[in-house]
Design brief:
With 177 residues, the protein is of the alpha/beta class. It has one domain. The chain is 29% helix and 26% strand. The protein contains seven helices and eight strands; from the N terminus they run αβββαβααβααβββα. The N and C termini lie far apart (35 Å).
Length: 177
């Protein structure tokens, strides 16, 4: 999202170890249409989200996470935060090689009403992450509740979840409080 990129650049201008990149992440290298709400840029999405207010359709470049990691020579990612209004599963699909090779310790992702539009449910996240050896927990203000999937959790009110490599008991212990 070009407008968000400009805001980010301003906010990180004094940070030495942060690099802003004007490119999005999805499951392939391409240009996508984004539904952008100037008055509320936090709901920008590749999906036709029915948020109230004026919006614009804009073009944005996206790439696969695996390609970005390889081209940047990034050996390991401690925390990958994904907030793309329902397209989180597409970003994750673009990181499959990193997930397979255990190059990402922790992934924060959102699950909510936008998942109705993407048709990628919480159960799908559990299945996806299980294949790569991650445990999922719902994030609360003071702790993370790592739990097995239950149909009652499919409530679309999330919003934030964490996936942690299942062999990182040290992290899960710290996060459960």
């Amino acid at each position: 999202m070009p407008q968000t990129y400009q805001v980010l650049r301003g906010k990180i201008s004094g940070c030495k170890n942060v690099i802003a990149v004007n490119r999005g992440l999805l499951d392939e290298e391409k240009e996508v249409d984004l539904k952008y709400f100037p008055e509320n840029s936090t709901v920008t999405s590749v999906y036709d989200v029915p948020y109230p207010g004026e919006y614009k359709m804009i073009k944005a470049k996206v790439t696969r996470g695996d390609d970005y990691v390889a081209s940047g020579g990034i050996p390991f990612i401690d925390l990958l935060k994904i907030d793309v209004e329902g397209a989180e599963h597409l970003v994750l699909k673009g990181f499959q090689e990193c997930l397979r090779s255990k190059k990402i310790a922790v992934i924060q992702f959102e699950y909510g009403k936008a998942n109705i539009l993407s048709r990628f449910l919480l159960a799908d996240y559990y299945d996806f992450f299980r294949r790569y050896g991650y445990k999922i927990g719902k994030i609360y203000p003071t702790y993370v509740d790592f739990r097995d999937y239950d149909l009652d959790h499919e409530d679309f009110i999330g919003p934030n979840y964490l996936a942690v490599q299942e062999d990182r008991n040290d992290l899960m212990k710290e996060l459960t409080g």
